[in-house]
Amino acid sequence: xxxxxxxxxxxxxxxxxxxxxxxxxxxxxxxxxxxxxxxxxxxxxxxxxxxxxxxxxxxxxxxx
Length: 64
Fold this sequence. Notes:
It is built from 2 helices and no strands. It is mainly α. It has 2 domains: 1-31; 33-64.
């Protein structure tokens, strides 16, 4: 029972620590989220997923 509590404690600590580091880095860079940044991230994600899907279909065609 003690190991379960320690694992959950360290998991929670790790998540909170990462959130604080992320906020600190954003504040240090004086980085502001706006709609343009969110849209660029979305487009980048879509482009990468499209490329990986097309690469997978290309490999599938090569194997068959």
